[in-house]
Amino acid sequence: MPGGFFITGTGTDVGKTIVTAGLVRFFQRCGLEPLAVKPVQSGAVADGSGGYDSPDGQVYRIAGGRWDPVQQCPNILREACSPHLAATMEGQVLDTASIARQVRELESEGFLLVEGAGGVMVPLNTHETMLDLMKELGYPVILVSANLLGTINHTLLSVEALKQAGLTVGGIITTEPSPEEDVAGMHRDNIETIESFSNIPVLASLNWIPDFNIHKPSVWEEVDRIFDLIDMELLQKRVGKIK
Question: Would you give the distance in Å from CA 208 to the centre of its chain?
């Protein structure tokens, strides 16, 4: 039984946080006790009391998940740049073994949904990347891909890196982060081509939501509608029993 999933993306701003929050809600409806974790956050926001919080964690909370930044976001960095650079600017050194220990300490709190920073190969220090953290944890991976022109290349490269690292890819979730016109059925063809070449299922396709606002219940109702299409039986066949 996996202790959780690692949610990574094909790059920055592809929708990982909304997907992670949506998965929190999905697994809640499945009767589980999911806990979203953001082990490394760059671009932190002031919390109003002199400290800093994760903007991603605030999304989890608004979506209905539990959120304690001290526990669930142990490495908060202020600068909005790559984690290795943000840490250097604050005189810190990130280490994948230490971060993995911090994450594993939360396994007793629930089924973990660990959101990475940026994409698969984002550096954490001078010699380790987000991929090394995924390998250290060994959780099955859910890959988030923005369904735009170029996504086939980005997704297949990310999948290949994950497979070469010996990681199990539980599935892919695509997002539509802009109202880009779906020329000649490109969105559907992207999904079909990715599944064909990677032999990995696209679990859900989160469509463009006009007037997106995380404080609007209708937004989360639409996310729920899409995520309820996830085939839980198929997912469990790929990663093992989830409970």
Answer: 18
> In angstroms, rounded to a whole number, what is the distance separating the alpha carbons of residues 13 and 11?
7
pTM: 0.95
Q: pLDDT per residue over 129-142, tens digit each?
A: 999 999 999 999 99
Q: Catalytic: 241?
A: no
Pick the CATH number of 4-239 from 3.40.50.300, 3.90.960.10, 3.40.120.10, 3.20.20.150: 3.40.50.300
DSSP-assigned states of every residue in 71-99: HH--EE-SSSS-HHHHHHHTT----HHHH
Cα distance between residue 195 and residue 58, in whole Å: 33
Q: Which residue is catalytic, options 16, 38, 135, 243?
A: 38
Q: What letter would DSSP give residue 123?
A: B
